[in-house]
Amino acid sequence: MDGKANTGGEWLERYWVWLAAGTVTLAWILNLGIGWWQLWSALRVSSETYINAGVFGDMFGAVNALFSGLSIIGIVYAIRQQDQQLKLARAEVKTAQDTLRIAIEDADKTKSILEEQQAQSRAQNEALRTQAYENTLFNVIQNLLSAENGITVRSTRTSNGEKEVTIYRGKDAFYNFAVGDAQKIYSGESRGNDTAHLTQIADRYYSFFVRNSGNYFRILENAFSMTAASPNRHFYSNIVKSNLTSTQVLTAALIGISEKAKTLKAAIEENALLDIFADEPEVFAFFRHTYSAAAFGLTEED
């Protein structure tokens, strides 16, 4: 039913002009026929000229009616054409708006996808940079431990007139120094408050450890230099510090006093390497004249 109704409506929409024109023409022909019939009837009834002329003139009223009807049809046709054009224009505008809306939505989706991909790419790059940094740092720490294991120190003692030679390796070498020579130095036996004399002692031990420890302290400097370049400096600095014993820190602090070990001293202060001795009065009193408060994890007000 709906299909037939739509078909009829489409047919009427398409051919209404011809249907209207045919109707007007048919009405005109009918009117003309009636006029001719009236004229013929009048001629039969009377032959007076003015009567016949009046009847004949009335015949042309149909012509006026024809042109009037056609004019109305033309006006209606023009109005309908404009209405159809407006409908087409509105449909085109709506289509363009829909197309633009879809394009904007697609652009927004594409932008969101690109932003998400960029965020993922940045996260991946950051993870790769962090992984590369940590691998490098851990390799440096591994080299530090290898250098530590390679340290060999000979200690000669005289007992009952006989010399005893003891070899210390790795952490034991630092421990032997800490419980022996370093203990005497910072306890005051070697004038710990005399900066000039202390520097001489530090220079002597610097040469001694450079000769016996290879590049251990240079690697330690490099490790702390790497942590300084990281946004998570405190975290990575603590990792490096966790691989140092208190005797190694004590040794590094004494050597750092030397004029030849300025880089090591800066690393000790920047990374608060002496914070483990902040609560030990003797060590703190010994080094507080040569190191800033930052080396102990303190401020100048503390």
Helix percent reads over 70%
Tally the structural domains: 2
Q: What's the count of strands? A: 2
Q: What structural class results from the helix and strand content? A: mainly alpha
User: Which oligomeric state applies?
Assistant: single chain
User: Rough shape?
Assistant: rod-shaped
**If you average the pLDDT, what whole number results?**
78
Sheet-strand content, in percent, reads: 5-15%
User: What is the CA–CA distance across the termini?
Assistant: 98 Å
Low-confidence stretches: none
How can the largest sheet be summarized? 2 strands, antiparallel
Radius of gyration: 56 Å
Number of helices: 10
Strand neighbour order, sheet with most strands: 1-2
SSE pattern: HHHEEHHHHHHH
Describe this structure in words.
- The protein is mainly alpha-helical.
- It has two domains: 2-114, no CATH class; 152-296, no CATH class.
- Helix content is 76%, strand content 5%.
- The protein is built from ten helices and two strands; from the N terminus they run αααββααααααα.
- It has helices at 2-45, 49-58, 61-149, 171-189, 195-213, 216-228, 233-242, 246-256, 262-270, 281-287, and strands at residues 152-159, 162-169.
- A two-stranded antiparallel ribbon has the order 1-2.
- The chain is rod-shaped.
Keywords:
302 residues; mainly alpha; 2 domains; two-stranded antiparallel ribbon; 10 helices; 2 strands
